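$ ./design --mode recover --in tokens.txt
reading tokens...
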């Protein structure tokens, strides 16, 4: 499901800004861009996102500003600088070379000037992360819920329409047997002309066809799947994957009905029903 959230928290001169956005995806995929100095907290950020979300492609961006915070300071090793300087003077005298030693030359040697970086307090930044990410996730989830409510109602209407199509099939199913008996009887009479119709053979043939074309079990299971789908749809928990599975079963039953029911009327309704299920499947993949 698509959504966006932003959170920001400031403490001791540091401001951590968290932005999170999601797009539709069958599974949960979390991608994180985090400042290098906070890389040790990447797993923590990922776990927090996974606890709040169960589906969607998620991009999480963290930005750290340190206005007013303790800055990196330069540290000069005076003793090491003097050692380098004296060594250069000695080398100049020994090699009888002109002495061109200056401050830039000495400062360029390793260790003479180094950065005194403030120690990273992971507990402090972890607190910043949790508060800013919690705010971002709250905004994201609110947006996703609003979209989910709209999507749920759209899916509900599609399933109600699908149920009406199943009712049409249920009403037409008994007529298929009656029509088959009439057509078969007429064909036999036309073929045999004056020969008397063997009623017992006709009954056997109709019974065989009835057993082969019977879709009662499929309709019963399909109605059960529809009830389960609607019950699951309105639960206040992640239901997307379960609905996917129920739709697979519904699609299997409607395909069986289409192959067994020897009726152009039912075949037309089956095509429409399969089209509805495909729309519902696409919409369901956007549900968490």
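writing sequence...
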């Amino acid at each position: 499901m698509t959504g966006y959230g932003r959170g920001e928290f400031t403490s001791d001169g540091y401001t951590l800004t968290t932005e999170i956005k999601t797009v539709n995806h069958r599974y949960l995929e979390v991608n994180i861009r985090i400042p290098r100095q906070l890389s040790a907290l990447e797993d923590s950020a990922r776990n927090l996102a996974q606890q709040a979300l169960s589906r969607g492609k998620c991009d999480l961006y963290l930005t750290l500003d340190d206005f007013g915070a303790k800055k990196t300071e330069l540290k000069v090793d005076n003793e090491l600088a003097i050692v380098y300087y004296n060594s250069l003077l000695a080398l100049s005298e020994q090699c009888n070379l002109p002495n061109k030693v200056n401050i830039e030359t000495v400062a360029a040697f390793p260790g003479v000037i180094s950065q005194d970086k403030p120690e990273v307090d992971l507990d402090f930044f972890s607190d910043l992360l949790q508060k800013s990410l919690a705010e971002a996730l709250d905004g994201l989830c609110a947006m996703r819920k609003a979209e989910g409510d709209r999507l749920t109602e759209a899916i509900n209407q599609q399933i109600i329409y699908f149920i009406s199509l199943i009712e049409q099939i249920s009403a037409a199913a008994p007529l298929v047997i009656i029509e088959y008996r009439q057509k078969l009887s007429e064909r036999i009479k036309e073929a045999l002309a004056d020969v008397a119709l063997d009623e017992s053979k006709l009954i056997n043939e109709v019974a065989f066809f009835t057993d082969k074309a019977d879709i009662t079990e499929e309709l019963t299971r399909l109605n059960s799947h529809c009830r389960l789908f609607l019950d699951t749809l309105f639960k206040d928990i992640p239901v997307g994957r379960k609905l996917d599975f129920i739709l697979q079963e519904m699609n299997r039953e409607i395909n069986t009905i289409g192959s067994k029911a020897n009726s152009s009327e039912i075949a037309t309704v089956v095509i429409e029903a399969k089209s509805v299920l495909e729309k519902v499947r696409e919409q369901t993949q956007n549900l968490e």
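exit 0
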